[in-house]
Structure formats: structure tokens, C-alpha cells
Write a structure and sequence with these properties.
Strand content: 15-25%
Structural class: alpha/beta
Number of strands: 22
CATH topology of the largest domain: UDP-N-acetylmuramoyl-L-alanine:D-glutamate ligase
CATH superfamily of the largest domain: Mur-like, catalytic domain
Distance between the termini: 53 Å
Shape: globular
Length: about 450
């Protein structure tokens, strides 16, 4: 929604927005664009009298325990008969119409892959428009209109709005669609994996016969999706028998197309997941005429996305430097791949401390709590923030024994880490929210360890 607001502002509209607890980097970006942010969903915002209300899927008809509406502004809009629409619908009608849309779908890696693909097209001189669910460091903005030809968009399977329960991505009508991976997620709106596969097939149905579907050949779930019917050109990646494959380490590898080398890539990113993201982006870019060799040269300069293993600070202690990272990982598979990538980078001797909060709707429900020990296998120590959970995180982490600790507050969590941290450690903070400013608090606590004790 923040990126959509930026697009509307660039198109010349006056834009305001409201939310609860807006946090960086999006809040900083919006203010820099001159977009007023209103805290909360009060009905008094009706006084702004906009031409259109664009409603995000956080908004519902829910009521608080005392019976009052949780979103009084939405109730006022309905009562007044004011015009409103969803974010994806507004995009489809005012931004995407008539363009070659390249949509990136998948349970994991959407933001990073969208940013990769956008950067490739930018380096190829195509000046694409884009909407990314984060802030790509190569652009420092999450959205722009571009030159009216290509538009790259992060295509989310989450529902559109309380009045439109279709997945967001069915509105986008892509000519090039990446199906990056597919696991069970969003337990608050999907009953099972088959229900999500059905939505992914709705997306496949919208790709024209002259379009391209780029699919991860390692995913059985996506094989089932395409088995339901596909009417477009298909390019696969990942498995040895697929069209686009990689040979070498994730940070330095050859790109093969149908067994023949077409590019090489050496870059700063870690992890097999990012290698797969790169293959997907290269295959999609080829559909709009970008050679894999040029795509790989662009990716060599790719700077990732904020909050994707972003280094928030380092603290030098006697014996070694401690590094604090910020990462958006929240699904167990994403946590595991993030930590695995770091482990490959730092080797077996340096310690990794995983600091995380189960904050997504799916994790709050406890649907995937049993997978947490598996997701944290590469961590030497794990620290879980349990605030707001209705399930017992300590019990879920029991298989980890003394390697895992839980804390009900951010301050308690920081104190636990400060007691056990050692010089040379890597501290990975993982959340899909602001995490209560834990990164700054950790850096402050670590810097305090350098100060000499009072006499």
C-alpha cells in the first residue's frame, strides 16, 4: 500500500494514508515523498473528502470487545456511500493497463526476486515501472511509474480486501509470470495447500498464449498447478533437467540454458534461495529481450533489498567484531534458508544467534510452531520474542534444549542476548514487522559491553 501511494503521488494525485504503527523504511519513504501519514483509522478523516478511498486488506468489518468498530473510517465510508476500491484493482485500472506486466509470485523471495528483475531491466535500458514490497537499495524507492512499457510487480497470493477475497495477483494480468515456489502459508485465509495452488492456477489462467510462465522445477506444488492447465510458454529453473540451471556455489556460479553456459555470476548475496531467485529473474528478463549474459552482469551489481540480511551495525569487542543483521524472514522455511545462507558465508566456527518473533498471522496461529526447531538448526543460539502469542513458544522450542530462550518483552530479549553474546558473533533479527526497535537496542547494549566497569 505504501508503494501504491508512491505511484499515485508520482502520477500527480494528492495522497494521504492512514495505518496503525507505521514503521521504517516505508514510513520514511512516504514522508520524503510528501505523503501525509495519519495514525489510526478514525472517522474524522472523512473531512479530507478524497475522490477515492483505496482500501488495504488490513481493513475489515471487525469489532472490538466493547462492540465498537475496529475501523471506524471504513464504516463511515460505507454509511456515506463514498467511492472506494482495493489497491490491486486501482493498480490494474490506473497503472498496469496496456503494459507488459512481469509478475513475481511465490511463498518466499517475491520481494528480492522482483527487485532483481527490476534492476536487470533497468540496466538493459528499459526503464521499467515497478512496485516492490520493500525498498530495493539500487533504487532507494519501492515504486515508480517508469516509461509506460514494462512494469514489474510483486504478486502476492494474500486476499485483496474484505470485499474481494480473490488473491491480489489475479488483478495484474501479467504477460510474464514467475512462480518462484509454493508452500502452505497464510493459515488465516487458506485452509490447506491445495487452496493456495488453486489461486496460483487462477494466475496462470490470466497469462496470454504469447506470454511466459517461469516456474521452479524443484516444487511439486507448482507441478500440480501447471498440471491443471497452462496455455503459455513455460521456462523452468532449478532442477538439473530444467531450462535454466546453475553450476557452482551460490555466490559464484555459471548459468546454463538447456545445458549450455550462457552467463556467469559472482555477487555478494548468499544462499541457494538467492541463486534460484537469480535464475527466475534471468529467465523472466529473457522474455522481454534481455540476454542472460547482460542479466548476470546487472545482478553482479545488485545490492539487495532493505531488511534482507541488511547489516544494521557492528560493534568491535576485544576478540572480535559482532555484526547485527535485520531480515524479513518469518515463515519457517524462510528462517531456515536465511540462516543456512549465512552459515555458508561465515563457516562452521563462527556463532550465529537467531533473534526472532512469530509475528505473521500464520505464525501467531501456531500453525507452524512445530517447524521452528527445524528452521533454527543452523543457529547456535535462538531467542524468541513471545509477546502476543496464544501458544507456548518455550514448549515448541523444547527440542533445542538450552540453545533456545524465550522472552515476553523486547528489553528482556535484549538482556538475554547481551548475557550470552561473544566476540565474533553474528546476530540475525528476523521479523515481518518493526520488532520494537530491537536492532538499535541490541547495538546499544553491545556498545555498553565495551565501556569499562565503574570503580
Amino acid at each position: 500500500m505504501g508503494g501504491l501511494a508512491a505511484l499515485a503521488r508520482e502520477a500527480g494525485h494528492r495522497v494521504t494514508g492512514c495505518d496503525a504503527g507505521v514503521y521504517p523504511p516505508m514510513s520514511d519513504q512516504l514522508r520524503a515523498l510528501g505523503i501525509d501519514l495519519v495514525e489510526g483509522f478514525g472517522a474524522e478523516q472523512m473531512a479530507l473528502k478524497p475522490d477515492m478511498y483505496v482500501v488495504g486488506n488490513v481493513v475489515s468489518r471487525a469489532r472490538l470487545p466493547d462492540g465498537t468498530p475496529k475501523f471506524p473510517l471504513m464504516e463511515a465510508i460505507l454509511d456515506a456511500g463514498s467511492p472506494y476500491t482495493s489497491g490491486p484493482q486501482w493498480l490494474a485500472e490506473h497503472v498496469l493497463q496496456g503494459r507488459h506486466v512481469l509478475a513475481v509470485a511465490g511463498t518466499h523471495g517475491k520481494t528480492t526476486t522482483t527487485a532483481m528483475l527490476t534492476w536487470i531491466l533497468e540496466c538493459a535500458g528499459l526503464q521499467p515501472g515497478f512496485l516492490v514490497g520493500g525498498v530495493p537499495m539500487n533504487f532507494e524507492v519501492s515504486a515508480r511509474l517508469g516509461n509506460q512499457k514494462c512494469f514489474v510487480i510483486e504478486a502476492d497470493e494474500y486476499d485483496t480486501a474484505f470485499f474481494d477475497k480473490r488473491s491480489k495477483f489475479v488483478h495484474y494480468r501479467p504477460r510474464t509470470a514467475i512462480l518462484n515456489n509454493l508452500e502452505f502459508d497464510h493459515a488465516d485465509i487458506f485452509d490447506n495447500l491445495a487452496a493456495i495452488e488453486r489461486q496460483f492456477h487462477h494466475l496462470v489462467r490470466t497469462v496470454p498464449s504469447t506470454g511466459r510462465v517461469v516456474v521452479n522445477g524443484l516444487e511439486e506444488s507448482l507441478t500440480r498447478v501447471l498440471a491443471q492447465g497452462c496455455w503459455s510458454e513455460v521456462r523452468s529453473f532449478g532442477a538439473a533437467v530444467n531450462d535454466f540451471t546453475a553450476v557452482g556455489e551460490p555466490h559464484d556460479f555459471e548459468v546454463l540454458y538447456q545445458g549450455k553456459s550462457v552467463a556467469s555470476l559472482k555477487w555478494a548475496l548468499t544462499g541457494v534461495h538467492n541463486q534460484l531467485n537469480a535464475l527466475a529473474a534471468i529467465a523472466a528478463a529473457e522474455h522481454v529481450g534481455v540476454l542472460p549474459s547482460l542479466a548476470a552482469r546487472a545482478l553482479a551489481e545488485f545490492q539487495n533489498v532493505k531488511r534482507r540480511m541488511e547489516v544494521r551495525g557492528t560493534v568491535a569487542l576485544p576478540g572480535g567484531e559482532i555484526t547485527v543483521y535485520d531480515d524479513f524472514a518469518h515463515h519457517p522455511t524462510a528462517i531456515r534458508t536465511t540462516l543456512d545462507g549465512l552459515r555458508r558465508k561465515v563457516g562452521p566456527t563462527q556463532r550465529i544467534l537467531a533473534i526472532f518473533e512469530p509475528r505473521s498471522n500464520t505464525m501467531k496461529l501456531g500453525t507452524m510452531k512445530a517447524q521452528l526447531p527445524w528452521s533454527l538448526e543452523q543457529a547456535d543460539l535462538a531467542f524468541c520474542h513471545t509477546g502476543g502469542l496464544d501458544w507456548d513458544a518455550r514448549d515448541a522450542l523444547t527440542p533445542m534444549g538450552e540453545r533456545a530462550q524465550v522472552a515476553s518483552s523486547i528489553d528482556e530479549l535484549v538482556a538475554q542476548v547481551a548475557r550470552l553474546v561473544q566476540p565474533g558473533d553474528h546476530l540475525v533479527c528476523m521479523s515481518n514487522g518493526g520488532f520494537g526497535g530491537v536492532h538499535l537496542k541490541l547495538l546499544q547494549a553491545l556498545n555498553a559491553l565495551k565501556a569499562p566497569a565503574a570503580p
